[in-house]
Amino acid sequence: MSRAAASDRHRAEAAVDTDERAAQPERPEGPHAVRSARLAAFAIVAVMDRPSPVPQAPAARQVLPISAWWLGRTGYRDAWDLQHRLVAARAAGLIGDQLLLLEHEPVLTLGRHSDPSHVIAGSDELAARHIELIRVERGGEVTYHGPGQLTAYPIVKLADRGLLVRPMVRALEAGLVAACAAAGVEAGRRDGFPGCWCGVRKIGAVGIRIEHGVSYHGIALNVTVSLADFELIDACGMPGVQSTSIARELGLPSEPSTESVGRAAAAFAFSFADQVGAPLLGTLPPAADAAAARANIEDLLAARSGLDAATAGGAARCAPGSSSFGATT
After folding, report:
1. Is the pLDDT of residue 22 over 90?
2. What is the dihedral of CA 143, 146, 149, 154, to 10 degrees?
3. What are φ and ψ of residue 156, in 5° steps?
4. In the CATH scheme, what architecture does the domain 66-327 have?
5. Over the stretch 90-104, which tens digit does the pLDDT of each residue have?
6. Which residue has the higher pLDDT, 97 or 138?
7. Comparing C-alpha atoms, which of 161, 157, 159, 152 is closest to residue 90?
8. Distances 319 to 45, 70, 212, 322, 323 between C-alpha atoms, Å
9. Half-sphere exposure at residue 8, Cβ-oriented, CA atoms within 13 angstroms
């Protein structure tokens, strides 16, 4: 054995020896020392006899409902403003989670970072068709909204449900798949391409934004929408991608119908709420009254009017702590 190794072994053995000696109690000497030792031993036994605290189970996460509102045919800018006001109130903790269900007048929307070159139609053609082009703050590329298409906007505070962005998107996609299934159409996710697909044909889109921890924008599902209007754009920013609808997949004529959108809205709402583990509140089609629902939302916001005027006008559209996700239409 080398001198260095012997020295290391000696130091190790010395440490063990020192630890062992330190662990041995010294024998008390004299009556006073014996009495002190007995008191110390009694104190140790008393501590050992004391019952250990019972570990408390973590508090169960509160089950939070989602209030669903069927708004029927609604202008895009009107619904956009309503989303901002609801997001501000939800971020401030003044209201619970909301789900807006509706269809729009014809409109094209560009995502926050989307490429406008994917809008094939020129401004004159869009004007002739009375179709506005609006850039918004969601993720994803250009999309078309119009009659016969379900649009759903979830105003959800993700942290309160323990949700991250990806699981939220998966829940929206599952809702799209369920709405298609309820109508008799087989659809599913497609890896690398957010939304809902019938093979290689796009039937539903996802594009959301998170501000102050609250989601908005959402999904679009082609129910009985006029597919000719999708020729105005490269859907999803993917030239050549084919758009489809529930009506086309079933071999039915694509005559835009608010009633058909309402049926899809109910199926989507139930599935989405189930995916995020939320009880669903509200009246859904066919029993829902769109005008009454809108009045009730405005009453809800008015009753929570403690927000200052700037906040009540809507959440900042490009606020810090915000993110966007999605690939639309």
Report:
1. no
2. 70
3. -130, 130
4. 2-Layer Sandwich (3.30)
5. 999 999 999 999 999
6. 97
7. 157
8. 61, 29, 8, 6, 9
9. 4
Residues classed as catalytic = 236
The CA distance from 81 to 90, in Å, is 14
Integer Cα distance of 91 and 97 in angstroms: 10
Q: Strands 193-198 and 201-211, how do they pair? A: antiparallel
Q: Which helix (H) or strand (E) holds 42?
A: helix 31-49
With a cut of 90, say whether residue 237 has pLDDT above it. Answer: no
Residue 186 confidence class, pLDDT cut points 50, 70, 90: very high
The CA distance from 51 to 124, in Å, is: 82
- Reduced to 3 states (helix: H, G, I; strand: E, B; else coil), residue 59 is coil
The pTM for the full model equals 0.77
| E strand or H helix at 150 | strand 149-155
pLDDT in tens, 60-93: 667 899 999 999 999 999 999 999 999 999 999 9
- Other C-beta atoms closer than 10 Å to the C-beta of 124 total 8
pLDDT band at 24 (very low <50, low <70, confident <90, very high): very low
Tokens representing 276 are 């995020």
Locus of tokens 């084919």: 242
φ, ψ for residue 286 (rounded to 5)? -90, -5
What does the block give as tokens for 10?
């000696």
Q: Does 108 score more than 80 pLDDT?
A: yes
The angle subtended at Cα 70 by Cα 267 and Cα 265, nearest 5°, is 20
Flag whether pLDDT at 283 surpasses 50: yes
Q: What residue ranges do the domains of the chain occupy?
A: 66-327
- Which tokens sit at 273? 């709420």
Nearest to 223 by CA among 188, 189, 187, 264: 264
